[in-house]
């Protein structure tokens, strides 16, 4: 409502307008003159505030790119777990050919995690990191160890998963050849006189052990630490990585 006459009328008809005017009922000429006298102040009050997208980190918040790497990796990692456990619990890998189609989703998500690790680490090294929250040296050291373990898991799980895969991974627009059909494995097989079955077995043991006994624990520890900082310490460790938070 911009017209002074309409504002005068709404003061008598609309309870919200009446509350804003503190139950005063000025004439439209008074409203017009008041607005003209204080036009600059009104212009400063009603300004559309926009927040530019900040790609880089600063001392208090993570930037858009760091958040994109973090949440894409997290969703792909957890999604890969959900898919593979769906196959284990609800499908028969030996008698249901369609289980391979479902497993392909697991392979796609796993490779996506692996593809993101290197650029994520490079960006972490090149970009400034937010300041550490208040805490003891031991707590900061444990946090660094936990992060190193998490990155190690993000590297080893996709790597062992791919090295132990004997089928192509279909991404739709392109596919990634199974490791058993690559020139690298052919060289390994010739040089060390090893068959695919002998090569695959220890790789699968490592992958399944990490997935069953280590992966969930590392993820749960990471989530618990974030919630501890948010609920107990009441600092910004969690909020500065949330997608909706803005860099200060």
List the helices and strands and how they pair.
Layout: H1 4-13, H2 15-20, H3 28-37, H4 39-45, H5 64-90, H6 98-126, H7 137-163, E1 169-170, E2 175-176, H8 183-192, H9 196-233
Antiparallel strand pairs: 1-2
Helix pairs in contact: 1-3, 5-6, 6-7, 7-9
Architecture overview:
- This protein is mostly helical and 248 residues long.
- It has helices spanning 4-13, 15-20, 28-37, 39-45, 64-90, 98-126, 137-163, 183-192, 196-233; strands at residues 169-170, 175-176.
- Strands 1-2 form a two-stranded antiparallel sheet.
- Strand 1 (169-170) and strand 2 form a beta hairpin.
- Helix 1 (4-13) packs across helix 3 and helix 7 (137-163) runs antiparallel to helix 9.
- The mean pLDDT is 88.
| Computed structural class | mainly alpha
List low-confidence stretches: none
Mean residue pLDDT:
88
Strand line-up of the largest beta sheet: 1-2
User: DSSP strand (E) fraction?
Assistant: under 5%
Please outline what is shown here:
Helices cover 66% and strands 2% of the residues. It contains nine helices and two strands; from the N terminus they run H-H-H-H-H-H-H-E-E-H-H. Strand 1 (169-170) and strand 2 form a beta hairpin.
Characteristics of this structure?
mainly alpha; 66% helix; elongated; 248 residues; two-stranded antiparallel sheet; 2 strands
């Amino acid at each position: 409502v911009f017209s002074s006459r309409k504002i005068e009328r709404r003061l008598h008809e609309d309870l919200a307008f009446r509350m804003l005017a503190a139950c005063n009922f000025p004439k439209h000429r008074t409203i017009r003159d008041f607005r003209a006298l204080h036009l600059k102040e009104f212009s400063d009050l009603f300004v559309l505030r926009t927040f530019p997208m900040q790609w880089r980190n600063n001392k208090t918040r993570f930037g858009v790119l760091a958040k994109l790497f973090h949440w894409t990796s997290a969703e792909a990692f957890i999604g890969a777990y959900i898919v593979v456990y769906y196959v284990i619990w609800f499908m028969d890998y030996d008698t249901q050919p369609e289980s391979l189609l479902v497993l392909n989703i697991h392979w796609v998500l796993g490779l996506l995690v692996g593809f993101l690790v290197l650029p994520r680490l490079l960006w972490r090294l090149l970009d400034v990191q937010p300041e550490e929250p208040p805490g003891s040296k031991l707590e900061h050291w444990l946090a660094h160890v936990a992060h190193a373990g998490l990155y190690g898991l993000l590297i080893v799980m996709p790597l062992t998963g791919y090295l132990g895969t004997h089928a192509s991974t279909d991404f739709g627009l392109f596919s990634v050849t199974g490791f058993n059909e690559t020139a690298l494995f052919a060289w390994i097989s010739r040089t060390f006189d090893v068959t695919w079955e002998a090569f695959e077995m220890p790789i699968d043991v490592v992958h399944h052990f990490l997935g069953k006994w280590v992966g969930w624990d590392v993820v749960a520890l990471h989530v618990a630490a974030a919630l501890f900082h948010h609920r107990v310490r009441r600092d910004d460790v969690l909020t500065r990585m949330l997608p909706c938070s803005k860099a200060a």
